[in-house]
Amino acid sequence: MSLATVHLVRHGEVHNPERVLYGRLPDFHLSELGQQMARRVAGHFAARAAGGASIVRLVVSPLTRAQETAAPVAEQLGLDIVTDDRIIEAYSRFEGMSQVAQQLRNPRHWPLLANPFRPSWGEPYSQQVERMMAAVDDARRAAVALAEANGSAGPAEVILVGHQLPIWVSRLAAENRRLWHDPRERECTLSSITSLDFDGRRLIGVRYEEPSADLLPGAANLPGA
């Protein structure tokens, strides 16, 4: 069996009343609404498993908000959390700032905006794709091996819980689209699921779902890195 699906899950809403661009900063926890979103994601995958899906692995960014989003998934599916640093949030020189749009009016920050196509203020989009897709490939292969060992007949499925920007640029690369973009146009809402379908190493499809769509109007949402 070589068919597999890798589900890229964005974390739920974070408690962030100061609207800090938290990036890789520690100790940013899910809000109550974010915890509800995490339970929605868990219910979504539990329903898939009850319907016969072979979900065999759960891989998570080391950051608190991702780990907390993954916790109810792990509990409902009976999976261990495997932490992978490669699916961490993108690095940004704006990390730790609050009210970023207002701060960028300060001329001292303008040199960081010199090349939005790379981008010049943080980790290059191409490097994010490289590390994310390496993690995706390793997770896919591990899931296929586990599913085969368990005697599963259907496609192997693995869940990766991470962050908006790395997930979005990985989707852009998978769909052969340019990596630079307007952050406001990312289709990767809180607790959304971007699914990559594989036949062996060949990507054969990309799907997108929002199990918490009805919760999004009340959520605080920063574009990310």
UniProtKB/TrEMBL annotation:
Stated name of the protein: Histidine phosphatase family protein
TM annotation in the entry: none
Pfam family, one: His_Phos_1
InterPro entries: His_Pase_superF_clade-1 (IPR013078), His_PPase_superfam (IPR029033), PGM_Phosphatase (IPR050275)
CDD domains: HP_PGM_like
